[in-house]
């Protein structure tokens, strides 16, 4: 056995050592999980899965409401009871709908509205984030939204489209009106502006607040206030994909 | 020999037409790059994404994402490529923001990128990059322009020179005022140049003359713009020609700072390229109304408006009504008359029926004077708010002492000690005219605002960047005029005015209010 061969073996052995304790810890984790399943419900943060509590409350890391962890998924297939259809929805609602502020805002015609009760309550909505002096990503985002609106109408799916200005100080209703007209927005599509504090509180609640308006998200939030289910989609996805997500959300699937 | 000359002339001719052709192509190409519209009027369409959403190219022209300089403006998580020729033609496979490697671009490569969304190595470009459909001629103009991208400067800028122009009356009653403004501008920019210019660029001034009709004034500005390379305008005298002249500045995208007018634009959409220093008479009328509403007598009875029928007064009445609603006054009593038919006694009788505590008089000063005389005969002395005043005002009946009000957009209160010192030393050094000091101060203020905008923009100057940095001005003080604030929705620097009253005993104007803001 040459020195090189011995060294190689040595390296191999050393390399293997850490694997053993790791394997053991995995086993422990599984056991703990199984025990937990038997006993009690667990609440976890949607953003920080390592945060687990016995009761509902707020995540100490980010302040989001904790969600009930669906236990059914971890159980053997045979014993899974049919999940009550409304059950996960109410939890999602606790996570979002409830937090959407009902602040006063203006639409593109200068009408004064309450954000939650007039635009979200009881509806299926798709929300994107724009500003009218934006020249980069907002035109394609808005054009996509326009096509979504046309296709939704063709399929007879009622959904409220909302574009929230991330630059409310500049975006007066008149500016939004002009922007809406440029992209031929039809009724059922509300462009939202208002006092900066009101818009900020909406953006905070939706988790889309940014310090710099050009950093605004290209994501679309899609939600069904009745089932309380909310989801996100990339705003530049093809309209067909977005329609699919919206119609699934609308049907509560 | 003759043939030789013929060849020389011929080739020089060809050269010059080729040069002209190139310039025309660059101009057309730039228009497509910046606005997405073809000079030929033919449609250019953009198709985005897998489903090829169709949009007019004007809603997504190249410059929107790649910027006027071609370097790309990151936004909403999208990082558009640098498309300057130096970057696209790098001899090695370049790695752009999205780790896409490709061979150097050729003209054909750029064509494919624009029309098919592919780079020279056949990779797909980002989804946001539309595929454009345009005529062959438009496409080749655009590609010619793109080969100059980033080196393209707005007219009037060179490395050591910046051309600023103005339009002033040179004949007639206003000639004296025009020459006073010309003198102060020349003196001020000479001082700026003596101090090193703006980023080492000497400012050169060009002057155009106003003409007898608005259309001719517009022609005069147009010919200055086409014969000379002018970067921006300041202090242009546009009073009476607003409707004809102002659209020219937005069409040609030439910034204009501090035009001389009593009617700055207050209706939407705003002209992006025109920046006013002060509120016009519309704003002043609103200030007077707001001031009137602070007096309890007037608040109780509301106001009456007596106006000579004309277009401008219609704007003023609208402004007063807007402020009446805002200030919570009752509906005004209104009386209007055809020019030249003012019947003072009859008007006073009509007004006495409702006995409003204040009369807003919109008409020439002789009409307002005869109104006050008639009112005095029946021993009625309401508060009178005037839109037009001349020196005759001091002959008003004594009972109206300190009951006559007017608004003024500036006041000595705006003049700081330093500001005045600077202006006086400029006046002494350059022997500025002693007349039309108010016009001189206003022109001086406007030029200072322009210079501030230029300084904030920096060495890498363009008209668009100047407009953006002017939009960022907040409470900028010239030392002589009210603080100037602009914004994306604000083109009037100081929105408000001071109210002054007339002391008939000592024959002087007295400031009676501080700055009244109406924003």
Task: Write up what this structure looks like.
The complex is a heterodimer of chains A (253) and B (519). Chain A is an alpha+beta fold and 253 residues long. Helix content of chain A is 40%, strand content 16%. Chain A has helices at residues 3-16, 19-39, 87-95, 115-120, 138-155, 173-182, 196-206, 239-251, and strands spanning 43-44, 52-53, 67-68, 104-106, 112-114, 124-130, 160-165, 189-192, 219-224, 229-234. In chain A, strands 8-7-6-9-10 form a 5-stranded mixed β-sheet. A 3-stranded antiparallel β-sheet of chain A has the order 2-1-3. Chain A has a two-stranded antiparallel ribbon with strand order 4-5. The model of chain A is unreliable at 7-38 and 72-94 (pLDDT under 50). Chain B contains 16 helices and 19 strands. Chain B starts with a helix and ends with a strand. In chain B, the strands form 4 sheets. In chain B, strands 11, 12, 13, 14, 15, 17, 18 and 19 form an 8-stranded mixed β-sheet that branches. A 6-stranded parallel β-sheet of chain B has the order 7-6-8-9-10-16. A 3-stranded antiparallel β-sheet of chain B has the order 2-1-5. By secondary structure, chain B is α/β, with parallel strands linked by helices. In chain B, a hairpin with a 4-residue loop joins strand 1 (45-48) and strand 2 (53-56). Helices cover 41% and strands 16% of the residues of chain B. The chains are: A alpha+beta (253), B alpha/beta (519). The interface between A and B is medium-sized, with 28 and 26 residues.
């Amino acid at each position: 056995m040459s020195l090189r061969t011995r060294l190689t073996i040595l390296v191999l052995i050393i390399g293997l050592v850490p694997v053993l304790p790791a394997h053991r810890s995995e086993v422990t984790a599984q056991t703990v999980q199984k025990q937990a399943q038997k006993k009690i419900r667990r609440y976890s943060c949607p953003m920080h899965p390592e945060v687990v509590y016995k009761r509902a409350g707020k995540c100490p890391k980010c302040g989001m409401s904790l969600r009930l962890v669906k236990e059914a998924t971890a159980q053997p297939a045979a014993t899974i009871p049919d999940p009550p259809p409304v059950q996960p929805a109410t939890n999602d609602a606790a996570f979002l709908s409830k937090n959407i502020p009902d602040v006063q805002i203006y639409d593109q015609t200068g009408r004064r509205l309450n954000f939650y009760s007039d635009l979200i309550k009881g509806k299926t909505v798709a929300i994107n984030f724009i500003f009218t002096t934006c020249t980069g990503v907002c035109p394609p985002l808005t054009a996509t939204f326009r096509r979504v609106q046309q296709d939704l109408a063709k399929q007879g799916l009622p959904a409220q489209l909302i574009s929230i200005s991330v630059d409310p100080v500049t975006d007066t209703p008149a500016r939004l009106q002009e922007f809406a007209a440029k992209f031929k927005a039809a009724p059922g599509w509300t462009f939202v502006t208002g006092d900066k504090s009101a818009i900020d509180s909406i953006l905070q609640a939706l988790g889309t607040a940014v310090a710099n308006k050009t950093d605004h998200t290209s994501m679309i939030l899609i939600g069904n206030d009745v089932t309380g289910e909310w989801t996100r989609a990339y705003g530049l996805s093809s309209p067909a994909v977005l329609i699919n997500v919206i119609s699934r959300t609308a049907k509560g699937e | 020999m003759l043939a030789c000359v013929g060849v020389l002339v011929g080739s020089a001719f060809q050269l010059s037409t080729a040069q002209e052709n190139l310039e025309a192509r660059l101009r057309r190409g730039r228009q497509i790059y910046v606005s997405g519209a073809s000079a030929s009027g033919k449609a250019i369409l953009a198709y985005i994404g897998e489903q090829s959403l169709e949009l007019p190219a004007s809603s997504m022209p190249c410059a929107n994402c790649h910027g006027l300089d071609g370097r790309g403006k990151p936004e909403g998580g999208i990082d558009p490529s640098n498309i300057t020729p130096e970057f696209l033609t790098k001899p090695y496979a370049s790695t752009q923001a999205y780790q896409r490697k490709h061979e150097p671009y050729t003209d054909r490569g750029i064509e494919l990128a624009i029309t098919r969304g592919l780079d020279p190595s056949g990779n797909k470009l980002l989804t946001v990059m539309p595929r454009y459909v345009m005529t062959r001629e438009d496409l080749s103009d655009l590609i010619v322009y793109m080969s100059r991208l980033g080196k393209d400067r707005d007219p009037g800028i060179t490395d050591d020179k910046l051309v600023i122009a103005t339009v002033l009356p040179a004949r007639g009653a206003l000639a004296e005022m025009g020459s006073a403004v010309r003198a102060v501008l020349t003196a001020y920019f000479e001082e700026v140049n003596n101090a090193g210019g703006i980023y080492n660029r000497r400012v050169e001034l060009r002057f155009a003359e106003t003409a007898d009709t608005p259309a001719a004034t517009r022609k005069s500005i147009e010919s200055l713009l086409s014969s000379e390379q002018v970067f921006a305008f300041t202090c242009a005298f546009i009073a009476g020609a607003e409707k004809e002249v102002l659209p020219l500045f937005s069409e040609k995208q030439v910034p204009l700072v501090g035009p001389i007018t009593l009617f700055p634009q207050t209706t939407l959409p705003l002209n992006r390229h025109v920046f006013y220093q002060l509120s016009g008479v519309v704003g002043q009328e609103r200030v007077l109304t707001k001031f009137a509403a602070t007096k309890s007598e007037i608040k109780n009875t509301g106001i009456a408006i007596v106006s000579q029928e004309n277009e401008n007064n219609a704007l003023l009445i609208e402004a007063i009504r807007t402020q009446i609603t805002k200030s919570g006054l009752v509906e005004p009593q209104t009386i209007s008359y055809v020019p030249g038919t003012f019947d003072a006694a009859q008007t006073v009788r009509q007004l006495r029926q409702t006995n409003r505590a204040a009369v807003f008089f919109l008409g020439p000063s002789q009409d307002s004077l005869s109104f006050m005389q008639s009112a005095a005969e029946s021993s009625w002395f309401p508060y009178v708010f005037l839109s037009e005043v001349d020196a005759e005002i001091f002959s008003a009946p004594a009972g109206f002492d300190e009951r006559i009000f007017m608004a003024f957009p500036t006041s000595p209160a705006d003049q700081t000690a330093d500001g005045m010192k600077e202006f006086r030393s400029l006046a002494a050094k350059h022997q500025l005219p002693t007349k039309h000091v108010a016009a001189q101060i206003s022109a001086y203020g406007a030029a200072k605002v322009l210079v501030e905008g230029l300084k904030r923009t920096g060495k890498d100057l363009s008209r668009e960047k100047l407009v953006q940095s002017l939009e960022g001005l907040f409470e900028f003080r010239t030392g002589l005029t009210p603080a100037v604030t602009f914004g994306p929705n604000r083109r009037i620097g100081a929105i408000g005015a001071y109210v002054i009253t007339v002391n008939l005993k000592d024959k002087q104007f007295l400031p009676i209010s501080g700055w009244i803001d109406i924003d």
